[in-house]
Amino acid sequence: MKKTFKLEHPKIKLPRVVDSVKHDIRKFLKKERANTLPSGAKYWAFDCKFGESEETAMEVHLSSLTKNVDEFVTKGIMTLYVEINAKAIGGNENFVAEED
After folding, report:
1. How distant is the alpha carbon of residue 22 from its chain centre?
2. Which terminus of the chain, N or C, has fewer Cβ atoms within 10 Å?
3. Helix, strand or coil for residue 64?
4. Mean of the pLDDT values across residues 70-91?
5. Could you give the angle at the alpha carbon of 76 between the alpha carbons of 72 and 77, nearest 5°?
6. What percentage of the chain's residues is helix, strand, coil (to nearest 5)?
7. pLDDT for 92 beyond 70
8. Are 80 and 69 spatial neighbours (Cβ–Cβ below 8 Å)?
9. CA-CA distances (angstroms) from residue 4 to 21, 24, 56, 57, 63?
10. What is the DSSP string of 17-30?
């Protein structure tokens, strides 16, 4: 998932747009976790990038992704870039299955 979210909307209030962004992120994660794992893999892991734009995005941990959205809103930043890549993690080896 590579997506830029704009938090300004002429008719929808900001808290509702923020909830929509968080819902999109959670929905993507749920869909990716439901995919079947490749043979030898034990679980899905996610590489996440978050920032104001694709060029300024920095790697963040999955658990802090929604907290970062809230921090951007309190700072008044109205554009968010989120990139999440799924990868299958196995016992001794790492199996990589990147999805957009």
Report:
1. 9
2. C
3. helix
4. 94
5. 55
6. 35, 35, 30
7. no
8. yes
9. 10, 12, 12, 11, 19
10. HHHHHHHHHHHHHH
